[in-house]
Design brief:
By secondary structure, this protein is α+β, with helices and mostly antiparallel strands. The protein folds into 3 domains: about 5-65; about 75-115 and about 125-310, Endonuclease Chain A (Endonuclease, Chain A, 2-Layer Sandwich), CATH 3.30.870; about 325-485, Endonuclease, Chain A (2-Layer Sandwich), CATH 3.30.870. The chain is about 45% helix and about 20% strand. The strands form 3 sheets. It has a 15-stranded mixed sheet, with helices on both faces. Helix 9 runs parallel beside helix 10.
Amino acid sequence: MAMFMGFTFADVWSVVTAFYVVAIIVVIAFIIYEKREPEKALAWITVIALLPVVGVFLYFIFGRNRRKEKIFNRKELHDLEQLDRMCLRQLTDISNPDLLHHRSVADNRDIITLLLNSNKAPLTMHNRLKVLHNGKETFSDLLDSLRRAEKFIHMEYYIFENDRVGRKVARILMDKARSGVAVRLIYDDVGSWGLSPRFVYKLRKAGVETGKFMPVVFPWLTSGVNYRNHRKIVVVDGKRAYTGGINIAERYLRGTRLGRWRDTHLRIEGDAVGMLQAIFVTDWYFVSGKRLFDMALYFPPAKVDTVTPMQIASSGPDSDWASIMQAFFAAIGKARRYIYICSPYFLPNQAVLTAMKVAALSGIDVRVIIPSRSDSKVVYWATRSYIPELLEAGIKVFLYRKGFIHAKVIIIDGEFSSVGTANMDIRSFEDNFEVSAIIYDRATARILEEQFREDMADSVEITAEMWDKRSSLHAAYEALARLLSPLL
């Protein structure tokens, strides 16, 4: 038998095997100690048990619970003191008749209080919104605002593509920077993987300041690779802002092999612009180490008389609470008439899923639009795995057929609406940095509801009889993808 320094191969193999067994037991014990959701813990334990070496590696890259570890520590920047004072004042005055005279505010006082406590998200009253229903409307409006910028442009995107749309936006940014406008761009390193150093160099040479969010360098993978900045934020001169589901990419205009991309975005003017600016300022410090102190410049007083109550909710591994998920859960739980949900990736956690099923079983009209095809095969099958139990609870499920629906919209009882970047999935709830506009306004809800009904008309409603006829192979794909869904 082969010998190595006096040890047989069998001896070495026994030691290595023992080491791996101990390592696996320690990692599994650590997962249990974290006290995370049972389904997520069991999924990771299964992967590690079946794929010991690979499973442990994947867990340390993708599985760690960064919120509990406080590794981001609010990105090392204290919240803006003025926002803190505003939140404390609103928590004291939440029963003030001046706030509650607006019916939608009074009816959603509990959700407003929740976001004040968990997210320091002030309620802003004086806002003017424009709902942008697709890429054509969004880019036309956005490019016009960028061209009119006089003082600064702040942009933050998950995906910024080097395509015709991306190059067009880049040219405007460079022209503005050369003319003296301060231009700052944050892009996610994973989402914007296609941005070449040459593309970024041209931006920087023209005077555009850029920040790459949590760079991932291969082969030295960082544990932060799993925590991505999924936000889409633009703030122009502190007067006009944009957020929603649309990235800087040509697919929103011309579509892909999936067909046209249907998405929803918002243009915001008024007090809520400052709330999006506060998120950008914090993220900019995180990626650049630079503080933007000039409150008069970056947070000018709003000059909007229109009353549209709303809060800007953010969430991510840097926050103590999964604020956006909690807001969705609370809103679904207090619904009385209807709940309309549109999400391209539907993998809810158990709390939100149970809330939806309880609402439907209580007689509330619950409808969900999801894509009939997806840009992610595993997510596609995992999403479909939820359909049987949704149907069983009486939830109406629609598969969008006119391309790929990428909108992330919730409308409840005509008084609560959400438009933003967060999908109805565990990744958006727990791992990604997200932002959503929570709107308490009937007029906005009517516009979003009208679009929702148009999307339903472009969809096919699934019945239990139809679903039971799907192939056994597809059912197997769904079951396997569902098992892996807590890890996605």
